[in-house]
Amino acid sequence: MLTDALLILAPLFLGFALALENRRLMTAIHYLVEALVYFILALLGLGLGQMEGLSDQLGTMAVQMSMLVIVLFVANMAGLWLFHRWRPMTPEPRDAASGGTGYVRLFMAAARPLLAVLAGVLSGYFLLPELPQAEQVATGALMLLLFLIGLQLRNAGLSLRKLLMNTQGLGIALVLVISSLLAGIALVPVLGLPWHDVLALASGFGWYSLSGIVIGDALGPAWGGVAFVNDVLREIIALAIIPLVIGTRPAMAIGYGGATSMDFTLPIIRSSGGLSCVPVAIASGFLLSFLSPVLMGVFLSLG
């Protein structure tokens, strides 16, 4: 397991160590990352579709996923509410001239990962024979994805020093990590897994393409599916609650988005909370994007 954890972390840090200046190459990397995400999710669905006794396990998986989502939501929002009381932040009024965010478009984009997994499930269940090399292919694709994401993080035009000095964003990220791990501890007797595996499940922070395949490799396709749906639902719930709470409790809105606050949910954070929320969201999302694979790798290596 320790070797697997190092395989997860090494490509991310290797990519982050390389500086690139060719903007055309960075654009190509962006599209390659997007294609790899959907490819990995389809392979995750394929493993689920070919899992023995899938139909008998769906009810159990739904209960496990629901408990994970609910307990994480309550713990995260409680922790972020306390952080807001301690370090209140007042966002700018919404800029009417900037227009509204296309919520329907964003929700449809959030649903695409689910469709990719569903396509894999249906293909595996009805069409394709068992592919013995699928797990190795998925692991290789994940390592390439992490390397490219490391490149993107390094070359996103962000000052690492400024991100680390954004105490509001770092505080939000750390509160989300701590509250998620406390939720994981509370879920140990409910989920029936060793404590370190449950903490790995709780460490996805919305990064579904990572958590689904890493947890699936370590704990089996059923738990990979639970981890994936949990993190996709975090993204979808964040899209719904950000406009509702960012005006009064921005830490809760930014924090619950997890790792997505620096990319997918950033447009809604910007349009609903103003420019002052953007550096906070980027700092929080950046730190969570690094901590998620680190924590998952460490916890799974304890098995």
UniProtKB/TrEMBL annotation:
Q: Transmembrane ranges?
A: 29-49, 61-83, 103-128, 140-158, 170-191, 236-259, 280-302
What keywords is this UniProt entry annotated with? Membrane, Transmembrane, Transmembrane helix
Any keyword Membrane?
yes
Specify whether Plastid is a keyword of the entry: no
- Per the record, the domain of life is Bacteria
Query: Which PANTHER family does the annotation name?
Result: LYSINE EXPORTER LYSO
The protein in question is named: Lysine exporter LysO family protein
Q: Which organism is it from?
A: Marinobacter aromaticivorans
Q: What is the lineage of its organism?
A: Bacteria, Pseudomonadati, Pseudomonadota, Gammaproteobacteria, Pseudomonadales
